[in-house]
Amino acid sequence: MTIKSLKILTLLAAVAMFLPLPVMQYVAEESYYALGAYEIFVDEHWWHQSVFGLAWPKTPLYNWMIICVAQVIGWSHLEIATRIVSVSATLGSAAVVYFMARKLFPEQRNVPWLGALIYLTMGEVFFWYGWLGYADATFGFFIFAAISSLWIAIEEKQVKWLLISLVLISLAFLTKNISCYVMYLSAGLVLIWRYQRWNLLFNLFYILPVLASFTLPWIYQNLILAGGANTSVAIGDAMRNFLGYSLLSYLNHWISYPLLFLGRAFPVTLILIWLYFKEKQRYVLHRDLVTILYILLLCLLPFWLSAAGTARYLIPFYGLLALVITGLTLQLNLKQLALVSKVIIIVILMKIPYSFAVLPYIKDWRPERDIRAVVEDIMQFTDGKNLRTMNDVSTGLSIGAYINVRTPPDQFVHWYDGKERQVYILSEVEDPKLGELIKHWRLQGNETYLYWKP
Asked: What are the φ and ψ backbone dihedral angles of 107, each rounded to 5 degrees?
Protein backbone atom coordinates (compact mmCIF):
# COMPACT_ATOMS: atom_id res chain seq x y z
CA MET A 1 0.00 0.00 0.00
CA THR A 2 1.30 3.44 -0.90
CA ILE A 3 1.45 6.16 1.72
CA LYS A 4 -1.26 8.07 -0.17
CA SER A 5 -3.66 5.14 -0.14
CA LEU A 6 -2.94 4.54 3.56
CA LYS A 7 -3.72 8.18 4.37
CA ILE A 8 -7.00 8.01 2.43
CA LEU A 9 -8.08 4.75 4.09
CA THR A 10 -7.14 6.07 7.53
CA LEU A 11 -9.19 9.22 6.91
CA LEU A 12 -12.17 7.14 5.72
CA ALA A 13 -11.92 4.89 8.77
CA ALA A 14 -11.80 7.94 11.05
CA VAL A 15 -14.87 9.49 9.39
CA ALA A 16 -16.72 6.16 9.53
CA MET A 17 -16.28 6.14 13.31
CA PHE A 18 -18.90 8.91 13.50
CA LEU A 19 -21.59 7.17 11.40
CA PRO A 20 -23.64 5.50 14.20
CA LEU A 21 -23.56 8.56 16.47
CA PRO A 22 -26.77 10.33 15.35
CA VAL A 23 -28.61 7.13 14.41
CA MET A 24 -28.76 5.10 17.60
CA GLN A 25 -30.81 5.61 20.74
CA TYR A 26 -29.03 5.11 24.05
CA VAL A 27 -27.31 1.73 24.12
CA ALA A 28 -27.12 -0.10 27.47
CA GLU A 29 -25.13 1.96 30.02
CA GLU A 30 -24.59 5.01 27.81
CA SER A 31 -27.48 6.73 29.58
CA TYR A 32 -25.75 6.22 32.95
CA TYR A 33 -22.89 8.48 31.82
CA ALA A 34 -25.31 10.93 30.19
CA LEU A 35 -27.36 11.20 33.40
CA GLY A 36 -24.22 11.73 35.46
CA ALA A 37 -23.00 14.52 33.18
CA TYR A 38 -26.39 16.26 33.16
CA GLU A 39 -26.76 16.17 36.94
CA ILE A 40 -23.21 17.40 37.54
CA PHE A 41 -23.92 20.34 35.24
CA VAL A 42 -27.33 21.18 36.70
CA ASP A 43 -26.39 20.81 40.38
CA GLU A 44 -22.84 22.14 39.87
CA HIS A 45 -21.36 19.46 42.12
CA TRP A 46 -18.38 19.16 39.81
CA TRP A 47 -16.42 16.54 41.76
CA HIS A 48 -19.36 14.39 42.80
CA GLN A 49 -21.29 12.28 40.34
CA SER A 50 -24.93 11.40 40.95
CA VAL A 51 -27.62 9.44 39.13
CA PHE A 52 -31.26 10.36 39.76
CA GLY A 53 -29.97 12.55 42.59
CA LEU A 54 -28.26 9.65 44.37
CA ALA A 55 -24.52 10.03 44.97
CA TRP A 56 -22.41 7.60 42.99
CA PRO A 57 -18.69 7.27 43.83
CA LYS A 58 -17.22 7.55 40.34
CA THR A 59 -14.56 9.94 39.09
CA PRO A 60 -16.01 12.73 36.90
CA LEU A 61 -13.57 13.52 34.06
CA TYR A 62 -15.55 11.68 31.40
CA ASN A 63 -18.68 13.55 32.51
CA TRP A 64 -16.85 16.88 32.28
CA MET A 65 -15.91 16.09 28.69
CA ILE A 66 -19.51 15.21 27.87
CA ILE A 67 -20.63 18.52 29.39
CA CYS A 68 -18.18 20.45 27.20
CA VAL A 69 -19.48 18.79 24.04
CA ALA A 70 -23.15 19.08 25.07
CA GLN A 71 -22.67 22.81 25.66
CA VAL A 72 -21.52 23.13 22.05
CA ILE A 73 -23.98 20.86 20.21
CA GLY A 74 -26.91 21.27 22.62
CA TRP A 75 -28.19 19.18 25.51
CA SER A 76 -30.97 17.77 23.33
CA HIS A 77 -28.19 15.76 21.63
CA LEU A 78 -26.75 14.41 24.86
CA GLU A 79 -26.44 10.83 23.58
CA ILE A 80 -24.36 12.12 20.65
CA ALA A 81 -22.19 14.16 23.03
CA THR A 82 -21.25 11.05 25.02
CA ARG A 83 -20.21 9.32 21.80
CA ILE A 84 -18.24 12.25 20.42
CA VAL A 85 -16.03 12.07 23.50
CA SER A 86 -15.44 8.35 22.89
CA VAL A 87 -14.69 8.79 19.19
CA SER A 88 -12.29 11.64 19.98
CA ALA A 89 -10.47 9.37 22.43
CA THR A 90 -10.33 6.61 19.82
CA LEU A 91 -8.80 9.00 17.30
CA GLY A 92 -6.37 10.03 20.04
CA SER A 93 -5.36 6.39 20.52
CA ALA A 94 -4.84 6.08 16.75
CA ALA A 95 -2.55 9.12 16.94
CA VAL A 96 -0.55 7.44 19.72
CA VAL A 97 -0.24 4.31 17.57
CA TYR A 98 1.02 6.55 14.74
CA PHE A 99 3.58 8.16 17.07
CA MET A 100 4.81 4.89 18.53
CA ALA A 101 4.94 3.15 15.14
CA ARG A 102 7.15 5.96 13.84
CA LYS A 103 9.42 5.45 16.84
CA LEU A 104 9.54 1.64 16.64
CA PHE A 105 9.82 1.39 12.84
CA PRO A 106 11.71 4.55 11.79
CA GLU A 107 13.01 3.11 8.53
CA GLN A 108 9.61 3.06 6.75
CA ARG A 109 7.60 6.23 6.14
CA ASN A 110 4.26 4.48 5.59
CA VAL A 111 4.32 2.40 8.79
CA PRO A 112 2.77 5.03 11.13
CA TRP A 113 -0.24 5.34 8.82
CA LEU A 114 -0.50 1.57 8.56
CA GLY A 115 -0.49 1.26 12.36
CA ALA A 116 -3.18 3.93 12.78
CA LEU A 117 -5.31 2.26 10.08
CA ILE A 118 -4.97 -1.17 11.67
CA TYR A 119 -6.02 0.25 15.03
CA LEU A 120 -9.03 2.17 13.72
CA THR A 121 -10.37 -0.85 11.80
CA MET A 122 -10.06 -3.33 14.66
CA GLY A 123 -13.50 -4.85 15.08
CA GLU A 124 -13.95 -4.05 18.77
CA VAL A 125 -12.84 -0.46 18.19
CA PHE A 126 -14.44 0.20 14.80
CA PHE A 127 -17.83 -1.41 15.36
CA TRP A 128 -18.43 -1.05 19.09
CA TYR A 129 -16.42 0.40 21.97
CA GLY A 130 -14.51 2.89 19.83
CA TRP A 131 -17.66 5.00 19.34
CA LEU A 132 -20.01 3.80 22.09
CA GLY A 133 -20.70 6.39 24.79
CA TYR A 134 -18.92 4.51 27.58
CA ALA A 135 -15.89 5.75 29.51
CA ASP A 136 -13.78 2.82 28.27
CA ALA A 137 -12.41 4.36 25.07
CA THR A 138 -11.31 7.49 26.95
CA PHE A 139 -9.94 5.43 29.84
CA GLY A 140 -8.05 3.28 27.32
CA PHE A 141 -6.61 6.30 25.50
CA PHE A 142 -5.13 7.80 28.66
CA ILE A 143 -3.66 4.45 29.76
CA PHE A 144 -2.16 3.71 26.32
CA ALA A 145 -0.75 7.23 26.01
CA ALA A 146 0.66 7.02 29.56
CA ILE A 147 2.39 3.69 28.90
CA SER A 148 3.79 5.00 25.59
CA SER A 149 5.17 8.11 27.30
CA LEU A 150 6.60 5.97 30.10
CA TRP A 151 8.33 3.83 27.47
CA ILE A 152 10.21 6.86 26.13
CA ALA A 153 10.94 8.10 29.65
CA ILE A 154 12.58 4.80 30.62
CA GLU A 155 14.32 4.03 27.35
CA GLU A 156 15.75 7.53 26.83
CA LYS A 157 15.97 8.50 30.52
CA GLN A 158 13.95 11.67 29.99
CA VAL A 159 12.18 13.04 33.06
CA LYS A 160 9.88 15.24 30.97
CA TRP A 161 8.29 12.15 29.41
CA LEU A 162 7.86 10.64 32.86
CA LEU A 163 5.98 13.76 33.94
CA ILE A 164 3.80 13.58 30.83
CA SER A 165 3.04 9.92 31.54
CA LEU A 166 2.10 10.72 35.15
CA VAL A 167 -0.31 13.44 34.02
CA LEU A 168 -1.88 11.00 31.56
CA ILE A 169 -2.29 8.18 34.07
CA SER A 170 -3.79 10.66 36.54
CA LEU A 171 -6.34 11.61 33.87
CA ALA A 172 -7.04 7.91 33.39
CA PHE A 173 -7.84 7.61 37.10
CA LEU A 174 -10.12 10.63 36.93
CA THR A 175 -11.89 9.03 33.97
CA LYS A 176 -12.79 5.72 35.58
CA ASN A 177 -11.02 4.08 38.52
CA ILE A 178 -7.79 3.11 40.22
CA SER A 179 -7.17 -0.02 38.10
CA CYS A 180 -5.21 2.13 35.62
CA TYR A 181 -2.31 2.29 38.08
CA VAL A 182 -1.99 -1.51 38.06
CA MET A 183 -1.58 -1.45 34.27
CA TYR A 184 0.82 1.50 34.42
CA LEU A 185 3.06 -0.08 37.06
CA SER A 186 2.99 -3.43 35.25
CA ALA A 187 4.16 -1.78 32.04
CA GLY A 188 6.79 0.18 33.94
CA LEU A 189 8.28 -2.94 35.52
CA VAL A 190 8.50 -4.68 32.14
CA LEU A 191 10.16 -1.65 30.54
CA ILE A 192 12.68 -1.25 33.39
CA TRP A 193 13.53 -4.95 33.10
CA ARG A 194 13.81 -4.95 29.30
CA TYR A 195 16.03 -1.85 29.21
CA GLN A 196 17.85 -2.73 32.46
CA ARG A 197 17.08 0.65 33.98
CA TRP A 198 16.97 -0.55 37.59
CA ASN A 199 18.94 2.49 38.67
CA LEU A 200 15.87 4.61 37.95
CA LEU A 201 14.17 3.05 40.96
CA PHE A 202 16.70 4.92 43.13
CA ASN A 203 16.69 8.17 41.15
CA LEU A 204 14.84 10.89 43.11
CA PHE A 205 13.98 12.75 39.88
CA TYR A 206 11.90 9.68 38.95
CA ILE A 207 10.72 8.43 42.31
CA LEU A 208 9.46 11.71 43.82
CA PRO A 209 7.17 12.66 40.88
CA VAL A 210 5.72 9.13 40.86
CA LEU A 211 5.01 9.20 44.59
CA ALA A 212 3.53 12.69 44.34
CA SER A 213 1.31 11.69 41.43
CA PHE A 214 0.11 8.55 43.17
CA THR A 215 -1.33 10.64 45.99
CA LEU A 216 -4.15 11.71 43.66
CA PRO A 217 -6.32 8.63 44.34
CA TRP A 218 -5.84 9.09 48.09
CA ILE A 219 -6.73 12.79 47.87
CA TYR A 220 -9.79 12.13 45.75
CA GLN A 221 -11.10 9.22 47.78
CA ASN A 222 -10.40 10.58 51.25
CA LEU A 223 -10.75 14.34 50.91
CA ILE A 224 -13.38 14.62 48.16
CA LEU A 225 -15.43 11.42 48.34
CA ALA A 226 -14.40 10.53 51.90
CA GLY A 227 -13.83 6.95 52.94
CA GLY A 228 -12.16 5.55 49.82
CA ALA A 229 -15.45 4.88 48.05
CA ASN A 230 -14.00 4.80 44.54
CA THR A 231 -11.43 2.20 45.51
CA SER A 232 -14.10 0.15 47.27
CA VAL A 233 -16.26 0.09 44.15
CA ALA A 234 -13.30 -0.81 41.91
CA ILE A 235 -12.15 -3.62 44.21
CA GLY A 236 -15.72 -4.89 44.58
CA ASP A 237 -16.17 -4.95 40.80
CA ALA A 238 -12.88 -6.83 40.42
CA MET A 239 -13.69 -9.40 43.11
CA ARG A 240 -17.04 -10.20 41.50
CA ASN A 241 -15.08 -11.59 38.55
CA PHE A 242 -13.39 -14.14 40.82
CA LEU A 243 -15.92 -15.20 43.42
CA GLY A 244 -18.78 -17.67 43.07
CA TYR A 245 -17.68 -19.42 39.87
CA SER A 246 -17.09 -23.09 39.20
CA LEU A 247 -13.82 -24.58 38.01
CA LEU A 248 -15.40 -25.12 34.59
CA SER A 249 -16.17 -21.39 34.35
CA TYR A 250 -12.55 -20.59 35.10
CA LEU A 251 -11.26 -23.08 32.52
CA ASN A 252 -13.64 -21.78 29.89
CA HIS A 253 -12.55 -18.21 30.56
CA TRP A 254 -8.83 -19.06 30.51
CA ILE A 255 -9.23 -20.66 27.08
CA SER A 256 -11.63 -18.16 25.54
CA TYR A 257 -10.28 -14.84 26.80
CA PRO A 258 -7.11 -14.65 24.64
CA LEU A 259 -9.16 -15.87 21.67
CA LEU A 260 -11.70 -13.15 22.41
CA PHE A 261 -8.92 -10.56 22.51
CA LEU A 262 -7.48 -11.60 19.16
CA GLY A 263 -10.81 -12.37 17.52
CA ARG A 264 -12.35 -9.00 18.31
CA ALA A 265 -9.28 -7.30 16.89
CA PHE A 266 -10.24 -8.60 13.43
CA PRO A 267 -9.66 -8.40 10.51
CA VAL A 268 -5.86 -8.22 10.43
CA THR A 269 -5.32 -10.56 13.39
CA LEU A 270 -7.37 -13.23 11.66
CA ILE A 271 -5.54 -12.71 8.36
CA LEU A 272 -2.17 -13.11 10.07
CA ILE A 273 -3.32 -16.30 11.78
CA TRP A 274 -4.80 -17.64 8.53
CA LEU A 275 -1.55 -16.95 6.66
CA TYR A 276 0.43 -18.68 9.40
CA PHE A 277 -1.54 -21.92 9.03
CA LYS A 278 -2.55 -21.78 5.39
CA GLU A 279 0.58 -20.42 3.71
CA LYS A 280 3.12 -21.35 6.40
CA GLN A 281 3.98 -17.69 6.90
CA ARG A 282 6.46 -17.30 9.72
CA TYR A 283 6.91 -14.14 11.76
CA VAL A 284 9.95 -12.69 13.50
CA LEU A 285 9.43 -10.87 16.77
CA HIS A 286 12.12 -8.23 17.23
CA ARG A 287 12.99 -6.79 20.62
CA ASP A 288 10.34 -4.07 20.80
CA LEU A 289 7.53 -6.40 19.77
CA VAL A 290 8.57 -8.86 22.44
CA THR A 291 8.56 -6.03 24.98
CA ILE A 292 4.98 -5.14 24.00
CA LEU A 293 3.93 -8.77 24.31
CA TYR A 294 5.37 -8.93 27.83
CA ILE A 295 3.48 -5.75 28.74
CA LEU A 296 0.27 -7.17 27.30
CA LEU A 297 0.71 -10.46 29.12
CA LEU A 298 1.35 -8.85 32.51
CA CYS A 299 -1.43 -6.25 32.14
CA LEU A 300 -3.97 -8.80 30.93
CA LEU A 301 -3.09 -11.39 33.55
CA PRO A 302 -5.52 -10.20 36.29
CA PHE A 303 -8.42 -10.18 33.81
CA TRP A 304 -7.32 -13.46 32.24
CA LEU A 305 -7.04 -15.27 35.59
CA SER A 306 -10.56 -14.23 36.57
CA ALA A 307 -13.66 -16.18 35.61
CA ALA A 308 -15.71 -13.36 34.09
CA GLY A 309 -13.53 -10.54 32.74
CA THR A 310 -15.54 -8.83 29.99
CA ALA A 311 -14.43 -7.45 26.64
CA ARG A 312 -14.60 -3.91 28.01
CA TYR A 313 -11.49 -4.57 30.08
CA LEU A 314 -9.50 -5.18 26.89
CA ILE A 315 -9.98 -1.71 25.38
CA PRO A 316 -6.78 -0.14 26.84
CA PHE A 317 -4.67 -2.86 25.23
CA TYR A 318 -5.75 -2.68 21.59
CA GLY A 319 -3.32 0.16 20.88
CA LEU A 320 -0.41 -1.99 22.02
CA LEU A 321 -1.77 -4.94 20.05
CA ALA A 322 -2.02 -2.72 16.95
CA LEU A 323 1.72 -2.06 17.19
CA VAL A 324 2.44 -5.80 17.33
CA ILE A 325 0.14 -6.46 14.38
CA THR A 326 1.82 -3.64 12.43
CA GLY A 327 5.23 -5.19 12.99
CA LEU A 328 4.00 -8.59 11.80
CA THR A 329 2.17 -7.14 8.79
CA LEU A 330 5.43 -5.56 7.60
CA GLN A 331 6.81 -9.07 7.13
CA LEU A 332 4.20 -10.02 4.52
CA ASN A 333 4.91 -10.13 0.79
CA LEU A 334 3.19 -7.85 -1.75
CA LYS A 335 0.44 -10.36 -2.53
CA GLN A 336 -0.35 -10.84 1.15
CA LEU A 337 -0.31 -7.07 1.77
CA ALA A 338 -2.78 -6.64 -1.10
CA LEU A 339 -5.08 -9.11 0.66
CA VAL A 340 -4.80 -7.13 3.90
CA SER A 341 -5.67 -3.86 2.15
CA LYS A 342 -8.67 -5.40 0.35
CA VAL A 343 -10.07 -6.82 3.58
CA ILE A 344 -9.59 -3.50 5.38
CA ILE A 345 -11.47 -1.71 2.58
CA ILE A 346 -14.31 -4.23 2.90
CA VAL A 347 -14.44 -3.67 6.67
CA ILE A 348 -14.63 0.11 6.21
CA LEU A 349 -17.45 -0.28 3.66
CA MET A 350 -19.30 -2.64 6.02
CA LYS A 351 -19.54 0.19 8.56
CA ILE A 352 -22.12 1.98 6.37
CA PRO A 353 -24.91 -0.64 6.37
CA TYR A 354 -23.91 -1.65 9.90
CA SER A 355 -24.43 1.91 11.16
CA PHE A 356 -27.61 2.75 9.29
CA ALA A 357 -29.43 -0.59 9.15
CA VAL A 358 -27.98 -3.59 10.98
CA LEU A 359 -27.25 -1.99 14.36
CA PRO A 360 -30.46 0.10 14.48
CA TYR A 361 -32.51 -3.00 13.59
CA ILE A 362 -30.90 -5.05 16.35
CA LYS A 363 -31.04 -2.31 18.99
CA ASP A 364 -33.91 0.04 18.08
CA TRP A 365 -36.19 -1.11 15.28
CA ARG A 366 -37.21 -4.52 16.51
CA PRO A 367 -40.55 -4.68 18.36
CA GLU A 368 -40.61 -3.32 21.91
CA ARG A 369 -37.24 -1.57 21.53
CA ASP A 370 -38.18 2.06 20.83
CA ILE A 371 -37.20 3.99 23.97
CA ARG A 372 -38.14 7.36 22.51
CA ALA A 373 -41.71 6.19 21.84
CA VAL A 374 -42.09 5.24 25.51
CA VAL A 375 -40.65 8.60 26.53
CA GLU A 376 -43.27 10.39 24.42
CA ASP A 377 -46.02 8.39 26.14
CA ILE A 378 -44.67 9.14 29.60
CA MET A 379 -44.34 12.86 28.94
CA GLN A 380 -47.91 13.04 27.66
CA PHE A 381 -49.18 11.38 30.83
CA THR A 382 -47.06 13.43 33.22
CA ASP A 383 -47.69 16.72 31.39
CA GLY A 384 -45.15 18.75 33.35
CA LYS A 385 -45.88 17.19 36.75
CA ASN A 386 -43.02 15.84 38.88
CA LEU A 387 -41.67 12.47 37.80
CA ARG A 388 -39.78 10.17 40.13
CA THR A 389 -38.22 6.79 39.40
CA MET A 390 -37.41 3.45 40.98
CA ASN A 391 -36.11 2.04 37.70
CA ASP A 392 -32.33 1.79 37.45
CA VAL A 393 -31.97 -0.84 34.72
CA SER A 394 -30.56 0.39 31.40
CA THR A 395 -33.94 1.22 29.89
CA GLY A 396 -34.99 3.11 33.01
CA LEU A 397 -31.77 5.13 32.89
CA SER A 398 -32.31 5.87 29.20
CA ILE A 399 -35.87 7.04 29.78
CA GLY A 400 -34.63 9.37 32.52
CA ALA A 401 -31.83 10.74 30.32
CA TYR A 402 -34.23 11.56 27.46
CA ILE A 403 -36.77 13.17 29.78
CA ASN A 404 -34.23 15.23 31.72
CA VAL A 405 -33.04 17.24 28.72
CA ARG A 406 -36.67 18.06 27.83
CA THR A 407 -37.72 19.35 31.25
CA PRO A 408 -36.61 22.38 33.33
CA PRO A 409 -33.26 21.76 35.06
CA ASP A 410 -34.80 22.05 38.54
CA GLN A 411 -37.31 19.31 37.71
CA PHE A 412 -35.02 16.52 36.52
CA VAL A 413 -36.00 12.98 37.40
CA HIS A 414 -35.08 12.04 40.99
CA TRP A 415 -35.14 8.73 42.80
CA TYR A 416 -38.43 8.21 44.66
CA ASP A 417 -37.90 8.52 48.41
CA GLY A 418 -41.11 6.72 49.37
CA LYS A 419 -42.65 9.83 50.95
CA GLU A 420 -43.61 12.26 48.20
CA ARG A 421 -47.17 12.61 46.98
CA GLN A 422 -48.72 14.08 43.84
CA VAL A 423 -45.93 12.58 41.71
CA TYR A 424 -45.63 10.08 38.90
CA ILE A 425 -43.33 7.13 39.57
CA LEU A 426 -41.49 4.85 37.14
CA SER A 427 -40.79 1.32 38.32
CA GLU A 428 -39.14 -1.74 36.81
CA VAL A 429 -41.42 -4.07 38.82
CA GLU A 430 -45.15 -4.12 39.37
CA ASP A 431 -45.89 -2.62 42.78
CA PRO A 432 -49.49 -1.58 43.63
CA LYS A 433 -48.19 0.21 46.73
CA LEU A 434 -46.82 2.92 44.45
CA GLY A 435 -50.32 4.07 43.55
CA GLU A 436 -52.54 3.95 40.50
CA LEU A 437 -51.06 2.11 37.50
CA ILE A 438 -51.23 4.45 34.51
CA LYS A 439 -49.55 2.32 31.86
CA HIS A 440 -47.17 -0.59 31.42
CA TRP A 441 -44.56 -1.09 28.67
CA ARG A 442 -42.38 -4.01 27.67
CA LEU A 443 -39.10 -2.40 26.57
CA GLN A 444 -35.93 -4.19 25.45
CA GLY A 445 -36.68 -7.21 27.60
CA ASN A 446 -37.43 -5.13 30.69
CA GLU A 447 -40.72 -4.06 32.24
CA THR A 448 -41.56 -0.39 32.79
CA TYR A 449 -44.51 0.70 34.93
CA LEU A 450 -45.82 4.24 35.35
CA TYR A 451 -47.74 4.95 38.57
CA TRP A 452 -49.52 8.02 39.93
CA LYS A 453 -49.05 8.60 43.64
CA PRO A 454 -51.98 10.78 44.81
From this structure: -80, -10
Report yes or no: 228 and 182 within 8 Å, Cβ to Cβ. no
In a domain, residue 443? The reply is: yes
End-to-end CA distance of the chain: 69
Does 364 fall in a domain? no
Neighbours of 45 (CB within 10 A): 13
Higher pLDDT: 384 or 289? It is 289
117 Cα distance to chain centroid:
19
191-206 pLDDT per residue, tens: 999 999 999 999 999 9
Q: 262 with 273: CB under 8 angstroms?
A: yes
Structural domain containing residue 49 = 3-357
Phi, psi at 427, each rounded to 5°: -140, 150
Q: Are residues 323 and 375 in the same domain?
A: no
CA atoms in the 13 A half-sphere facing the CB of 171:
21
pLDDT in tens, 381-422: 998 889 999 998 999 999 999 999 999 888 889 999 988 899
Cα 429 to Cα 222: distance, rounded to the nearest angstrom = 36
DSSP at 157? T
Q: Which of 172, 171, 187, 9 is nearest to 94 (CA)?
A: 9
Residue 195 in contact with residue 287, Cβ under 8 Å?
no
The pTM of this model reads: 0.93
Is the same domain home to 350 and 418? no
Residue 389: strand pairing partners: 415, 426
Which of 357, 383, 403 finishes a domain?
357
**pLDDT higher than 70, residue 240:** no
